[in-house]
Amino acid sequence: MKTKTLKFLALVIVLSLFGSIQAQNDYAYIGNKKCKKCHIKQFKAWQKTKMANVFELLKAGQRAEAKKKAGLDPEKDYTKDKECLGCHTTGYGKKGGFVDEKTTPNLLGVGCEMCHGAGSEYTKKEYMSLKNKKFKRADVVKVGLVSPVGEKNCTEVCHNKKSPFYKPFSFDERKDQGTHKHFKLKYEH
Asked: Which of 117, 104, 123 is nearest to 157 (CA)?
């Protein structure tokens, strides 16, 4: 009897985890414009960062010495290289994510959603919007917002040993070097 109960509980846990993963995959990337409406200071600070402009590094001739050191051809254009696009664009290969420069220019570089999650749901007016300024963080987390952002967000897709430029990554040490400044929000969530 105990074995059947344990197997049943394990099945319930697995199915609930699958449902959670599936729900996360249902959210689509929408780009930074919607974030900018409420988070203009963060957006302006982000525009000046390495992350905002990281797509440019894929172009021929950019960071030639670093590419040579990593065993890459510095004269090659990597802007269509599937091995690079996941870390140099927003949402590549995912619903609503980066397709190419012409189709989705708003998803060039590492945008808000690469750290905070695909925003198709949590940016709706009933959640995080100018019409609902006092939303509850727990409510938007349930519909895809990643909060708090931490080391796992950075190393799961990028900043890991798959990168030819890999070096150990510490989120706490580097969070203010490549991302936007963190301004106090006007409303508590």
From this structure: 117
**What sign results for the dihedral spanned by CA atoms 141, 143, 149, 152?**
positive
CATH number of the domain to which 92 belongs = 1.10.1130.10
Residue 109 lies in a domain: yes
pTM for this prediction: 0.81
- Between 141 and 177, the higher pLDDT residue: 141
Residue 144 lies in a domain: yes
b (16+ CB within 10 A) / e for 35-67: beebbeebbebbeebebbebbebbeeeebeeeb
In a domain? residue 16: no
In sequence order, what are the residues at sequence separation of 6 or more whose Cβ sits closer than 8 angstroms to the Cβ of residue 178? 49, 50, 51
